[in-house]
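User: Here's a chain of 129 residues. Predict its fold as tokens.
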Amino acid sequence: MLASEGALNLRHCIVADDDAAVRAVLCSVVSRTYGDPKVLGVENGQEALSAYQAGGADLIITDVEMPAIDGIALVRALRAQDARLPIVVMSGNIEAGSHALAAGANWFLPKPFAIRELTTVLGRLLAET
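Assistant: Prediction complete.
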């Protein structure tokens, strides 16, 4: 994917993962790939929901298993608020995929995944917005 692909559609992204190293890598990949949008990394679904309510977002990338509010509950809460942004859910538990999609996620990425897989998925989703 070229850095410019989807760049016009991504100004603000929220990345929710309780693993600080994973969160840092994801934030870095999104920043480098999309022309340095505002990327906010948070530790859990509650922080992600609060950040979305305070400032919106064009994209949310979330893990499933997190404290406070997990990723699937986050997706449900956002969709209940009629949030129409793309949401990517990721987890090492492959069974979480069907739950994430049923809750309203746009895409499920099983962990571990290659960075290329993530950028391909983001390119597809952002092209649709």
